[in-house]
Design the sequence.
């Protein structure tokens, strides 16, 4: 009964997280702690969470297929950068201690949140256009380093990706969400390979959560496309601020 309850709880949390990832990012705020509460070690929880949410973000990307067609000119280059960075990040989490990186996570989330909030203003200041056909030179290296973060831990990577897309020059929130889900699914999918080889994934819980993430991710993406861009942006900001505050509290103030 305990195992059944745990499975149902993880499935439900993953479904909710899949929807959150599709709309705003930040689903790992729910799924990673849920796995830790089962007694799973940190690295195993991280690898299992990454694997479980991978197909959920892929389903979200399919839900945004119309928007992704509009950005196809830049998709491949950003996907390659994300994938290469993600491999390095996944290897780092398997080879190095988590303590130092965990202390930096709140500051990374804070920077990403501020960038997203200020993104439209900075884009207008730089004369950015809503439909980006040519990437600035710094975009691929920036996405590469973001891929490292995504492969290493990944909490908040969706919000950071949205912030980066805003700086590149995207202004249409549905396009940004579609490209965000494509890039994060690439990061998660590539990272599964070294995690699987190292035996870090708890597969039975990963598969249970994967089912919930796929359902939540696809439904969330289809619903998000019909919502007001202002509402979606507000949701992103609320999730970003909440995640940042939580990780500061957990890292520096929790006794």
Sequence:
């Amino acid at each position: 009964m305990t195992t059944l309850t745990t499975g149902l709880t993880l499935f439900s949390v993953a479904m909710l997280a899949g929807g959150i990832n599709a709309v705003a990012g930040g689903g790992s705020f729910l799924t990673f702690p849920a796995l830790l509460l089962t007694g799973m070690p940190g690295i195993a929880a991280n690898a299992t969470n990454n694997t479980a949410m991978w197909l959920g973000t892929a389903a979200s990307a399919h839900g945004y297929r119309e928007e992704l067609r509009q950005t196809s000119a830049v998709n491949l280059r950003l996907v390659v950068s994300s994938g290469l960075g993600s491999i390095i990040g996944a290897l780092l989490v398997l080879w190095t201690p988590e303590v130092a990186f965990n202390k930096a996570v709140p500051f990374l989330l804070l920077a990403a949140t501020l960038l997203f909030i200020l993104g439209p203003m900075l884009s207008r200041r730089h004369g950015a256009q809503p439909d980006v056909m040519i990437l600035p030179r710094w975009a691929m290296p920036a996405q590469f380093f973001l891929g490292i973060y995504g492969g290493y831990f990944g909490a908040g990577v969706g919000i950071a990706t949205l912030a980066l897309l805003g700086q590149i020059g995207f202004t249409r929130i549905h396009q940004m969400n579609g490209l965000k889900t494509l890039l994060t699914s690439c990061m998660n999918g590539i990272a599964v390979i070294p995690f699987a080889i190292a035996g870090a994934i708890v597969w039975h819980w990963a598969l249970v959560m994967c089912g919930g993430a796929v359902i939540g991710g696809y439904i969330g993406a289809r619903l998000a496309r019909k919502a007001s861009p202002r509402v979606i942006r507000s949701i992103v900001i609320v999730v970003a601020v909440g995640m940042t505050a939580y990780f500061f509290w957990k890292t520096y103030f929790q006794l």
Notes: The chain has a mean pLDDT of 80. The radius of gyration is 17 Å. Residues 146 and 236 are 18 Å apart (CA to CA).
